[in-house]
Amino acid sequence: MFGNMDIIKNIIDAISLYKNNFPMEERQILDPLTTMIKLALLGFKQDGTKLAIDSNRIYFQEPTLFQGFWRWAYGNKRYELHHLLNPILKAVKRYDINTPSIKIIFQGSVIGLDKLKSSYNNASNVVNHSLDLYMSIINNVLVPDTSRNNSVFHSVQEDEETNRQISIFQNLWLEDEIVLVANMINQIQNSKKDAKTYIDAVNTILIMKEDRANELISELTRRL
């Protein structure tokens, strides 16, 4: 993985790459915490599961015989994974890793990203490098070392448009809801018998949050 200075340099490079490759109208506005929970759920999916990102939502694409067809039909490409950078970076800036529920979600998101990387084992170096960077960003705040915490990311300047867009999600999640989801993630890990029930429950909550997030995005768009 990367050291602090390497992480900062790679984040800056990745932000620049994202701006150059995705004009504003093609960028996805993803809620940071919803993104982290989605990645945590990915850790419980079948090996080979991939992500599709469209309409400001993250979708799971299971490794069926038709996965390649559906990805082609919907225009999904591995470079969509660049949409994950901003919400991950915002999540580690916004949330306190010393909060047990946040720590559970962040730890799960690393596991999910690692599984995702194995799904793209024949992908380009750019994809693997991006996924390694995302894991390093999260691991940087997870390690029990006070010299390595989320303060390292505050030196990275995000563009005003990104900050304004993601700020609309500030109150999307209530603290009790975060604790509930973290507890269900624990249950998925500890109870194989009931795992599917808990996964479905978390998915239902995420759908509700994504619906509300899109309402907030529509409201923001109307104000512009």
Task: Characterise the protein shown here.
The protein is mainly alpha-helical and 224 residues long. The chain has one domain (4-223). 61% of the residues lie in helices and 4% in strands. A two-stranded antiparallel ribbon has the order 1-2. Helix 2 crosses helix 4 (85-94), helix 2 (32-42) runs antiparallel to helix 9 (195-223) and helix 8 runs antiparallel to helix 9. It is globular. It starts with a helix and ends with a helix. 32% of the residues are buried.
Q: Roughly how many Å apart are the termini? A: 40 Å
Contiguous runs where pLDDT drops below 50 for at least 5 residues: 69-76, 146-151
What's the number of helices? Answer: 9
Number of domains: 1
**Fraction in beta strands:** under 5%
Mean pLDDT over all positions:
80
Report the major sheet: 2 strands, antiparallel
Structural class: mainly alpha
Shape: globular
Order of helix and strand elements from N to C terminus: HHEEHHHHHHH
> Percent range for helical residues?
55-70%
Write down how many β-strands occur, each being a DSSP E stretch of 2 or more residues.
Answer: 2
Arrangement of strands in the largest sheet: 1-2
- Spatial extent as radius of gyration: 17 Å
